[in-house]
Amino acid sequence: MGAGKTTVGRMLAKRLGRPFLDSDHEIVERTGVPIPTIFEIEGEDGFRRREAQTIHDLTGGGGLVLATGGGVVINPENRRRLNETGWVVYLNVPPRLLYERTRHDRNRPLLHVEDPLAKLEELHAIRDPLYREAAHIVVDGSHLVAAGIVQHLLREFNRLCKA
Ligand SMILES: Nc1ncnc2c1ncn2[C@@H]1O[C@H](COP(=O)(O)OP(=O)(O)O)[C@@H](O)[C@H]1O
Ligand SMILES: O=C(O)C1=C[C@@H](OP(=O)(O)O)[C@@H](O)[C@H](O)C1
């Protein structure tokens, strides 16, 4: 949901010396069309099926930093798969800031509504417990400096690996 996962994920991957992948980008590559077009032709259900297949295909091998679309947690199998195959980070950003960071971008079909802030508030309320269920680390993504979030994550990964 425009929480800053690309910014933070790329920086983290660089620090870890691992490749960075983005599941939405992979879906666009596979279909050859932008995400709003998938929603138009196949509806949200069609997009979610492609998303689940992509998550399945990109996880399990390890050795990479994967950014996922904000709705990936709706599907219990996605939550389980992500949680069991890697360290999952929930980058939590309040709806008002999500709105600020996404309002110039037309690439999010779920936000093509009259009141995108209200939609973000609704989605955040529904999804927050699901992100927490899937995640090993919950981090405040409203931090101003992405590098600070990355430093924090590196310390947390270290702690988890030693536990
Ligand atoms: N820590 C941050 N502080 C301020 N702005 C940020 C931060 N992280 C991301 N942004 C901005 O928010 C927007 C969305 O970030 P991005 O990383 O592309 O999000 P996502 O991949 O989750 O959609 C971009 O304009 C980016 O510059
Ligand atoms: O929140 C969602 O359900 C979605 C978020 C989008 O990704 P971002 O999290 O990058 O916006 C994209 O996967 C799709 O439009 C659906």
TrEMBL record:
Keyword Nuclease set for record: no
Span of the signal peptide: none
Residues where ATP binds: G2, A3, G4, K5, T6, T7, R108
Keyword Nucleotide-binding: yes
One Pfam entry name: SKI
Function: Catalyzes the specific phosphorylation of the 3-hydroxyl group of shikimic acid using ATP as a cosubstrate.
Protein name as annotated: Shikimate kinase
Species whose genome carries this gene: Dechloromonas hankyongensis
